[in-house]
Amino acid sequence: MYERLYVAFLVYFNRDRDYFECHEVLEELWLDTDKDPRYKGLLQAAVALFHFRNDNIRGGLKMFRSAVNRLEGYAEDELGIRMGKLVDEMREYVRGLSGYEQHPIPYRDLTIDIVDPELQKAVDEAWRHIRPNVPQRRKPERPRTKQGLSS
Questions:
Q1: In this structure, is residue 18 part of a structural domain?
Q2: I want to staple 64 with a disulfide (CB 3.0 to 4.6 A). Which of 32, 48, 99, 140 is the partner?
Protein backbone atom coordinates (compact mmCIF):
# COMPACT_ATOMS: atom_id res chain seq x y z
CA MET A 1 0.00 0.00 0.00
CA TYR A 2 1.35 3.41 -0.95
CA GLU A 3 1.14 6.49 1.22
CA ARG A 4 -1.76 8.83 0.37
CA LEU A 5 0.60 11.83 0.16
CA TYR A 6 2.94 10.00 -2.22
CA VAL A 7 0.00 9.20 -4.50
CA ALA A 8 -1.10 12.85 -4.36
CA PHE A 9 2.47 13.92 -5.21
CA LEU A 10 2.37 11.80 -8.36
CA VAL A 11 -0.97 13.31 -9.41
CA TYR A 12 0.31 16.86 -8.92
CA PHE A 13 3.60 16.02 -10.68
CA ASN A 14 2.30 14.15 -13.72
CA ARG A 15 -1.17 15.57 -14.27
CA ASP A 16 -1.00 19.14 -13.03
CA ARG A 17 2.72 19.92 -13.28
CA ASP A 18 2.07 21.74 -9.99
CA TYR A 19 5.56 21.51 -8.55
CA PHE A 20 4.82 23.88 -5.68
CA GLU A 21 2.04 21.59 -4.44
CA CYS A 22 4.31 18.59 -5.02
CA HIS A 23 6.73 20.13 -2.55
CA GLU A 24 3.96 20.78 -0.02
CA VAL A 25 2.58 17.22 0.03
CA LEU A 26 5.88 15.38 -0.20
CA GLU A 27 7.55 17.48 2.48
CA GLU A 28 4.80 16.41 4.87
CA LEU A 29 5.39 12.75 3.97
CA TRP A 30 9.17 13.14 4.19
CA LEU A 31 8.84 14.50 7.73
CA ASP A 32 6.37 11.74 8.69
CA THR A 33 8.72 8.98 7.44
CA ASP A 34 11.82 9.95 9.41
CA LYS A 35 13.16 11.96 6.48
CA ASP A 36 13.31 9.14 3.93
CA PRO A 37 15.96 10.24 1.40
CA ARG A 38 13.92 8.90 -1.53
CA TYR A 39 11.11 11.31 -0.75
CA LYS A 40 13.59 14.13 -0.25
CA GLY A 41 15.10 13.45 -3.69
CA LEU A 42 11.69 13.42 -5.36
CA LEU A 43 10.75 16.59 -3.51
CA GLN A 44 13.95 18.22 -4.79
CA ALA A 45 13.14 17.15 -8.35
CA ALA A 46 9.83 19.03 -8.10
CA VAL A 47 11.53 22.08 -6.55
CA ALA A 48 14.13 22.05 -9.34
CA LEU A 49 11.42 22.12 -12.00
CA PHE A 50 9.57 24.85 -10.09
CA HIS A 51 12.72 27.00 -10.00
CA PHE A 52 13.68 26.50 -13.64
CA ARG A 53 10.13 27.13 -14.86
CA ASN A 54 10.25 30.42 -12.93
CA ASP A 55 13.61 31.41 -14.49
CA ASN A 56 15.66 30.65 -11.38
CA ILE A 57 18.41 28.78 -13.24
CA ARG A 58 20.81 28.65 -10.31
CA GLY A 59 18.16 27.30 -7.94
CA GLY A 60 17.03 24.71 -10.49
CA LEU A 61 20.58 23.51 -11.08
CA LYS A 62 21.28 23.26 -7.35
CA MET A 63 18.11 21.23 -6.71
CA PHE A 64 18.65 18.93 -9.71
CA ARG A 65 22.19 18.17 -8.53
CA SER A 66 20.99 17.43 -5.03
CA ALA A 67 18.12 15.23 -6.26
CA VAL A 68 20.47 13.22 -8.50
CA ASN A 69 22.93 12.74 -5.63
CA ARG A 70 20.14 11.47 -3.37
CA LEU A 71 18.42 9.18 -5.87
CA GLU A 72 21.16 7.77 -8.10
CA GLY A 73 21.97 4.84 -5.81
CA TYR A 74 18.48 3.39 -5.80
CA ALA A 75 17.15 0.61 -8.01
CA GLU A 76 15.96 1.33 -11.54
CA ASP A 77 12.41 0.68 -10.32
CA GLU A 78 11.97 2.09 -6.82
CA LEU A 79 8.81 3.18 -4.96
CA GLY A 80 6.73 1.80 -7.83
CA ILE A 81 8.23 4.25 -10.34
CA ARG A 82 10.94 4.22 -13.00
CA MET A 83 13.48 5.92 -10.74
CA GLY A 84 16.45 5.32 -13.04
CA LYS A 85 14.76 7.09 -15.95
CA LEU A 86 13.93 10.08 -13.76
CA VAL A 87 17.52 10.29 -12.50
CA ASP A 88 18.85 10.11 -16.09
CA GLU A 89 16.53 12.94 -17.16
CA MET A 90 17.64 15.05 -14.21
CA ARG A 91 21.29 14.43 -15.15
CA GLU A 92 20.47 15.81 -18.61
CA TYR A 93 19.05 18.90 -16.94
CA VAL A 94 22.22 19.27 -14.82
CA ARG A 95 24.35 19.16 -17.96
CA GLY A 96 22.13 21.66 -19.76
CA LEU A 97 21.77 24.08 -16.87
CA SER A 98 25.50 23.95 -16.10
CA GLY A 99 26.18 25.74 -19.39
CA TYR A 100 22.96 27.72 -19.51
CA GLU A 101 24.57 31.18 -19.78
CA GLN A 102 26.44 30.19 -22.95
CA HIS A 103 23.82 27.82 -24.37
CA PRO A 104 20.33 28.27 -22.91
CA ILE A 105 18.12 25.20 -22.97
CA PRO A 106 14.32 25.25 -23.09
CA TYR A 107 12.25 24.31 -20.08
CA ARG A 108 10.41 21.01 -20.30
CA ASP A 109 8.32 19.12 -17.77
CA LEU A 110 9.36 15.68 -16.64
CA THR A 111 7.01 12.73 -16.20
CA ILE A 112 7.44 10.08 -13.55
CA ASP A 113 6.69 6.70 -15.11
CA ILE A 114 4.72 4.40 -12.83
CA VAL A 115 5.64 0.71 -13.08
CA ASP A 116 3.69 -0.88 -10.23
CA PRO A 117 0.09 -1.66 -11.25
CA GLU A 118 -1.08 -1.18 -7.63
CA LEU A 119 0.42 2.31 -7.55
CA GLN A 120 -1.06 3.11 -10.97
CA LYS A 121 -4.49 2.06 -9.71
CA ALA A 122 -4.11 4.30 -6.62
CA VAL A 123 -2.99 7.25 -8.79
CA ASP A 124 -5.89 6.72 -11.22
CA GLU A 125 -8.35 6.73 -8.31
CA ALA A 126 -6.79 9.83 -6.71
CA TRP A 127 -6.68 11.55 -10.12
CA ARG A 128 -10.48 11.67 -10.10
CA HIS A 129 -10.70 13.12 -6.59
CA ILE A 130 -7.82 15.58 -6.34
CA ARG A 131 -8.77 18.96 -7.73
CA PRO A 132 -6.12 20.95 -9.57
CA ASN A 133 -5.03 24.18 -7.93
CA VAL A 134 -6.19 26.87 -10.34
CA PRO A 135 -4.36 29.12 -10.49
CA GLN A 136 -1.22 27.40 -9.30
CA ARG A 137 0.81 29.13 -6.65
CA ARG A 138 4.02 30.48 -8.09
CA LYS A 139 5.63 31.33 -4.74
CA PRO A 140 5.08 30.74 -1.03
CA GLU A 141 2.26 32.78 0.44
CA ARG A 142 1.86 33.96 3.99
CA PRO A 143 -1.15 32.70 5.89
CA ARG A 144 -3.97 35.22 6.08
CA THR A 145 -5.43 36.54 9.34
CA LYS A 146 -9.17 36.69 9.95
CA GLN A 147 -9.27 40.21 8.54
CA GLY A 148 -7.69 38.98 5.30
CA LEU A 149 -4.42 40.79 5.96
CA SER A 150 -0.96 39.29 6.04
CA SER A 151 0.53 38.99 9.46
A1: yes
A2: 48
